[in-house]
Structure formats: structure tokens, C-alpha cells
Specification:
two-stranded parallel ribbon; about 210 residues; 8 strands
């Protein structure tokens, strides 16, 4: 049995459709800001926005952040099919733009949904939530509000949650809004956007990967 599980675009699309209905996203929890963790969260966030728009007829803004828990390999060390080595510390490579007035991101009072493709060790998600809470607190203070009084909520949407002990834990409040579309064994997930060969072959391998589980 291969240690690699191939994932297809169709599977991701179908899982997100299922999750929106199963968790009643847009109803029980109606996010008004999606924050995609790059690069794996970009495509799932865009698909998710379409399903949420189908419910309420409005596009939810998507912001991008960059977090890395993987050591970058030198050119030539990471050919197609070779995983990156896991790191031990999260690195912030891109964050929300609070710069000019035309790009100011107000977090106060929002229902935020962080989107990523996989919950592996959970370190990246815990880091993202902690950094967002720092920004929320800073904006509350700037607005003259009591800390925690803005009623800002944070949720997590992941395509795959790996069935394994987590290195770090999310707080109880965030876990109330934790939405995995599926749980997989602790194996290497090979996503379609990582494919640099024939995507049709990759799609067929994805069908066989999950039929053998």
C-alpha cells in the first residue's frame, strides 16, 4: 500500500458542498470574512465562497495570509512526489494588510472563518488564531472598546483533518466552530495543485486511493 493519498479537485469540491450542508454554514454560523492560509487554503476558500453565495447571494471577502510550518527545500531537492520536511516553528510570511484606507481590514464584530486544506499537527491553525486574536485586541483598544467586547468570532474550516494526536490544541471557543469536511488516516496527502504531471492520471489515482481505504 502506498503511503500517499491522492486528492482530486472533484473530491474537494464535493466535500466542501457536503460540509456546507452538514454544518449548516451560512445559517448556524454565517461567516462574513474568509481568511485563506496560503497556499493550500486558496482554492478551498474560493470554492467555499461560491457555496455560501448560493445561499445568500453575496460574495464574502477573502483575505490571504501566509504561514509556513515546513522547511523550504533547495531547488532540485523537491521533485514531484517528494514531500517537504516538516518544521518545528510556524513562520509568518504574509499577513492581513492594515495599511492604506482602501485596504484596511476591520476584524471587529466579524464572523471570521479560517480556511486551510489540512489539519495535521494543528500548530499552524493555533498560531493563526492566536495572531488574529492579537489583532482583534489591538483594534478593540484603538476603538475604545473593552477587550473581548466586540463579539468577534473565529471559526476553522479544513478540507481534511488527519486522525492523529495534535501537537497543539485550539481553545474551546474556537473548537465550537471547527468544521472539517473529512477525516483521513495519518498519511501523506497529495493535492491536485501539487501535481506537475498529467492531472487526469492524478485524478484516476485519487479515485483508487480512497477506494482502498
Amino acid at each position: 500500500m502506498s503511503d500517499k493519498l491522492y486528492i482530486s479537485y472533484n473530491q474537494i469540491h464535493q466535500l466542501i458542498d457536503y460540509a456546507v450542508k452538514h454544518y449548516k454554514l451560512g445559517d448556524d454560523y454565517n461567516p462574513d470574512l474568509l481568511i485563506a492560509i496560503g497556499g493550500g487554503g486558496f482554492i478551498p476558500a474560493r470554492i467555499l465562497r461560491s457555496f455560501l453565495k448560493a445561499k445568500h447571494g453575496r460574495n464574502i471577502p477573502i483575505q490571504a495570509i501566509g504561514l509556513s510550518l515546513y522547511e523550504e527545500l533547495l531547488p532540485g531537492q523537491s521533485p514531484n512526489g517528494v514531500p517537504e520536511a516538516p518544521g518545528t516553528q510556524v513562520t509568518k510570511t504574509q499577513w492581513l494588510n492594515f495599511g492604506g484606507s482602501d485596504s484596511l481590514v476591520s476584524l471587529l464584530g466579524r464572523k471570521i472563518l479560517i480556511v486551510d486544506e489540512v489539519d495535521d499537527s494543528r500548530k499552524t491553525l493555533v498560531y493563526a488564531v492566536a495572531e488574529l486574536k492579537k489583532d482583534i485586541l489591538e483594534q478593540e483598544i484603538q476603538a475604545g472598546l473593552e477587550p473581548g467586547s466586540s463579539n468577534t468570532e473565529i471559526g476553522i474550516f479544513v478540507v481534511y483533518n488527519k486522525d492523529k494526536p495534535k501537537v497543539e490544541q485550539l481553545d474551546d471557543d474556537t473548537m465550537k466552530r471547527y468544521y472539517p469536511t473529512a477525516t483521513t488516516p495519518d498519511r501523506w496527502l497529495f493535492f491536485p495543485w501539487d501535481c506537475t504531471t498529467d492531472i487526469s492520471v492524478h485524478t484516476e489515482l485519487a479515485k483508487k486511493s480512497f477506494s482502498s481505504l
